[in-house]
Amino acid sequence: MRYQTLAFLLAAAASILPAQTEFPKAAGVAPGNGYSHVVVTSPGKLIFLAGQVANNASGQMVGKDDIKAQTEQVFENIKANLAAAGASFQDVVKLNWYIRDLKPEYLPVIREVRDRYINKEHPPASTLVGVAALFREGYMLEVEAVATVPAGRKPAR
Known about the structure:
Order of helices and strands: HEEEHEHEE
Strand order of the largest sheet: 3-6-4-5
Strand content: 15-25%
Number of strands: 6
Shape: globular
Largest sheet: 4 strands, mixed
């Protein structure tokens, strides 16, 4: 009975602990440009967003052949999906980018848009991959996100 009580108390304590998010800096690794190499989080709600593309609310592509317009729409879609899950960009800990026919001149454009949304003091971990194609012709990028929300925090409005 004592072990059951102890297990219950430990579970209860874990459920009220706030999420802890850390951004450790590894020795011997150059700092990332607008991203963190490592993000560590514990207890809380973990949110995974599917890859977002440049569709508006009607499902129509925004910004044909315009990397900036498509990136802005993608980040607006991420923002809306995070809000639906009770989170915001402040909670994002990981971004995965897939960019069709990646060109060096795309990088400053997508970084400028990204930096309007993310926590620049503690940016999320990030991976960017150039790909030959996405799911449908005309889409230039797709971005996945992972966020963590502290246990017990009221949903964002």
